[in-house]
Amino acid sequence: MADMSPLFRRRPPRDRLVTLIRKPGCHLCDDAQVVVEKVCGDLGVPWEQKDITEDRELHAQYWEQIPVVLVDGRQHTFWRVNEDRLRKALTD
């Protein structure tokens, strides 16, 4: 019998959150945003962006990796965002 506890239940995409951590003037960040907007728009997933130049903690943690994509607060990828991989992470 499958475990149906809240930890093991699949969450619908609309209940997920994607966070794009970026900085101004970053062309890789712009490219990542295009992918995040497309995938999240297609799936109805809310997303947000955070600027590392405005947050010391994010800057200290991610400055060498931006852009960084988090899914539900956990690091999904950095530098380049693969559309298929992000879509799979949000629907599995």
Care to describe what's here?
InterPro entries: Glutaredoxin-like, Glutaredoxin-like_YDR286C, Thioredoxin-like_sf. This is Glutaredoxin-like domain (DUF836). The chain is of the alpha+beta class. It has a single domain (13-91), classed as Glutaredoxin. Helix content is 36%, strand content 21%. It has helices spanning 27-43, 56-62, 83-91; strands spanning 18-22, 47-51, 68-71, 74-78. It has a 4-stranded mixed sheet with strand order 2-1-3-4, with helices on both faces. Helix 1 links the parallel strand 1 (18-22) and strand 2 (47-51). Helix 1 crosses helix 3 (83-91). The protein is globular, with a radius of gyration of 14 Å. The two termini are 20 Å apart. Mean pLDDT is 90; it is low at 1-8.
Give a brief outline of the structure:
The chain has 92 residues and is α+β, with helices and mostly antiparallel strands.
Features:
3 helices; Thioredoxin-like_sf; Glutaredoxin; alpha+beta; four-stranded mixed sheet; 21% strand
